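Narrative of accomplishments. A recurring question from our advisory board has been how the design workflow behaves on a single, concrete structure rather than in aggregate. To address it, we present the structure tokens for one chain from the evaluation set, followed by the sequence designed for it. No filtering or post-editing was applied between the two.
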């Protein structure tokens, strides 16, 4: 069994809690209240900013040029296509640039952003890769399940959000991330593999809290 398969199996309960969260189920059924999606989307824009930093520093720390090129290509997609999707949605909701810039992390989201920052700046490449695997693989999983169970939501933005995380190109990138971590894992010492497992489980827990913050409106904006 590969490293990524083993980690997913080890943390199966937490994984399933993330990918079957009520937020996801209602999104798939097209019954999710817009206010909940807006809360999530605004927080996810903050995640995007931290994610871009993580990707940029992962490119810097990647051990070879093929890995750097693949990550750089994904970074370009995120900063162009995905960021534009956020901006379009904010404009449709009547948010000014100043209002977007004033978005603050909620109490259950702020620890995730801080965690990402620590991994980005201080973590070794295999920690960065583990965080990327979890954040992207879980989104691929829930989005594919939505398509298989409910097809695509009729609400345009919900549909775009599912398509963004279930399309073949995204699936191929997630498979590449997994293969890269699996290969790297074979070279790691036991303590380094334990560290990867710690990042894997911590990221999963942060992802669950991220859903909770929007769905249950848990936490308040941090100062």
């Amino acid at each position: 069994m590969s490293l990524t398969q083993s980690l997913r199996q080890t943390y199966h309960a937490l994984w399933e809690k993330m990918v079957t969260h009520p937020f996801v189920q209602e999104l798939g059924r097209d019954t999710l209240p817009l206010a909940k999606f807006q809360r999530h989307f605004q927080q996810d824009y903050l995640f995007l900013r931290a994610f871009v930093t993580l990707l940029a520093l992962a490119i810097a720390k990647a051990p070879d040029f093929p890995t750097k090129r693949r990550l750089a290509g994904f970074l370009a997609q995120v900063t162009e296509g995905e960021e534009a999707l956020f901006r379009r949605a904010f404009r449709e909701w009547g948010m000014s640039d100043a209002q977007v810039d004033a978005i603050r992390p909620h109490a259950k989201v702020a620890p995730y952003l801080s965690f990402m920052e620590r991994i980005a700046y201080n973590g070794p490449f295999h920690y960065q890769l583990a965080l990327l695997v979890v954040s992207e693989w879980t989104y691929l999983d829930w989005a594919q399940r939505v398509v298989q169970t409910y097809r695509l939501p009729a609400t345009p933005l919900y549909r775009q959000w599912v398509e963004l995380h279930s399309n073949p190109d995204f699936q191929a990138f997630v498979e590449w991330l997994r293969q890269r971590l699996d290969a790297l894992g074979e070279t790691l010492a036991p303590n380094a593999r334990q560290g990867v497992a710690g990042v894997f489980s911590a990221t999963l827990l942060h992802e669950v809290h991220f859903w909770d913050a929007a769905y249950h409106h848990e936490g308040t904006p941090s100062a």
